[in-house]
Amino acid sequence: MELVNLATNQITTLASDTTAFLKLSWEREGQALAFLQAVSDTSFTDPTHRVYAFKNLYLAPQKMVFDPSKQGDFPDSMRIKESYTPRWSRDLTTVFLGIEEWTPAPPKGKNAKEEGKTPGVEVWHWKDDPVIPVQRKTINRDKDYAYLSAWNLDSGSFVRFADEKARDATLSGGHKTVILEDKTPYQPQFRLEHADYYLADTKTGQRKSVMKNFVTDYFYGSSPDGKFLLYFKDGHWYSYDVAKGRHLNLTEKIGQPFWNIRYDGPRDEKPSFGMGDG
To answer: Residue 242: which of 225, 232, 228 has the closest Cα?
Structure first.
């Protein structure tokens, strides 16, 4: 892997090996980059990956490497997954990664083929989470799914945000927090989905509860700077101040309806007309 400075034609070797380098990712201003290096282990079916990160590219490139096998706070049963492209935080202090459970290799011998057989019977149950028709629709997305995590460059620490319950994790604007959505207390769900919402600090992983049992269709995420969250409830628009932990009704004093008065569907919680951009 080489870096070419087009202004000077200078070539800098960033990494050199016979294994595969993949998922090159640039910081949006072009001041930093990151990529993965495949690392095989015969005890497992898929490779894990090292993460290379470089800053100060046009002065003296600063090289940092995250090796999960040498990272004490990285779980042994997980691997860094190649479906998630490394992503830089805005302040260049964190690289966000995706991880998943690491599948052990099947035992050698005659039993290996038997363990790999797929049963020809499909069993349905009313408590399936999600139900099988939904599983069929999301199978490709589920194959690429990875738990959102972070490598904090200043401390060298690893932090995992998403887990088996709060699988849906989204970086807020500014990349200081991660929005986590936990639907498990309300499964199975057949109409409007509900979830509990949390904010996790990207440096520590510490969570803070924001809302419980909230309709997912009416949650609109964070402001561009990550200081506020926006959602629609009881016919009004609300904001959540991340720093102060305070909910504020934005439209209660305007005196006009903000829920869709033309809506005649079966929802108890009426939707808004849409979301305007400020």
So the answer is: 228
